[in-house]
Specification:
The chain has seven helices and seven strands. It is an alpha+beta fold. Strands 1, 4, 5, 6 and 7 form a five-stranded antiparallel β-sheet that branches. Helix 3 crosses helix 5 and helix 5 packs parallel to helix 7.
C-alpha cells in the first residue's frame, strides 16, 4: 500500500467515514459456502453517499498477469491525496471471459470494502479458503457466477430462494437441469438449466 506524501486530509476523512458507515447488508446467497454475501452494486449504493459527504471516492482498474486477473484499488480524496492498495489477484480455474469477469467482480467487491475498512462477508475463520484449496472440482468463479445469476432471476421474477429451488428441482426431475450441485456444473450446464427455469417461470405468468 502506498500513500501521497501528505495524508492530513484523507486520513481524517477516512476516520470520519468509518465512524458513520456500517457494513453493507448481506442480501444475496452463495450456495457454495451456504452463506450470504453483499453484491458489488449493493456495496457501492450503500457506501457512496457517506463517501461523498467526506470527499472520498474509490477508483478500481482491472489488471492481469500470468498468475490470473484482479483489480487495483485507489481511495482518493478531493484534496488530491490518495491511498493506493496493492493489486488483489485471483488465479483462474479456466481461461475464458466469463471466469475472468466473475473473478474481477469478486475481487472488486472485496478490495472496495477492504480499502474502506468494512467487512464484506461473514467471517468463517478461514474455512472457505481451506475448502477451495482442497477441491479441484468446486471453483470459486462458478460459485460466484451461480450466486449472482440466482440473485438476478429472483429479482426479475420476484421470487424467493424457496420458490426458485422448487422450480429448479422440477426441471431436474424433468431432465432439463443437470442433476448435481450447481457448483459442480459447467457454465453451459448451469445456463441451460436456468434457461429451462426461466421458461417455466414465464409460462406460469411470473415476471
Amino acid at each position: 500500500m502506498t500513500f501521497t506524501c501528505e495524508t492530513d486530509k484523507i486520513f481524517p476523512a477516512l476516520v470520519a467515514f468509518q465512524g458513520e458507515a456500517s457494513n453493507p447488508p448481506r442480501s444475496a446467497d452463495n450456495p457454495y459456502f451456504k452463506s450470504k454475501y453483499t453484491p458489488l452494486d449493493v456495496v457501492i449504493d450503500h457506501v457512496k453517499p457517506i463517501m461523498l459527504k467526506y470527499g472520498l471516492a474509490v477508483i478500481q482498474t482491472p489488471c492481469s498477469s500470468e498468475e490470473g486477473v484482479g483489480v487495483q484499488t485507489m481511495l482518493v480524496h478531493t484534496s488530491g491525496q490518495y491511498i493506493l492498495a496493492e493489486p488483489y489477484m485471483l488465479k483462474l480455474s479456466k481461461q475464458d471471459a466469463q471466469a475472468g469477469g466473475s473473478a474481477i467482480t469478486y475481487a472488486r467487491r472485496y478490495a472496495y470494502l477492504s480499502v474502506l475498512g468494512l467487512a464484506p462477508d461473514t467471517d468463517d475463520d478461514g474455512n472457505a479458503a481451506s475448502e477451495v484449496s482442497k477441491s479441484s472440482k468446486q471453483d470459486f468463479d462458478i460459485a460466484v457466477y451461480v450466486a449472482e445469476k440466482n440473485a438476478e432471476i429472483k429479482k426479475e421474477f420476484g421470487i424467493n430462494n424457496t420458490a426458485l429451488k422448487e422450480v429448479v428441482d422440477e426441471m431436474k426431475a424433468a431432465g432439463k437441469f443437470a442433476n448435481k450441485p450447481s457448483t459442480q456444473m459447467t457454465k453451459s450446464e448451469y445456463d441451460s438449466g436456468m434457461k429451462a427455469v426461466r421458461e417455466a417461470l414465464l409460462a406460469r405468468g411470473n415476471g
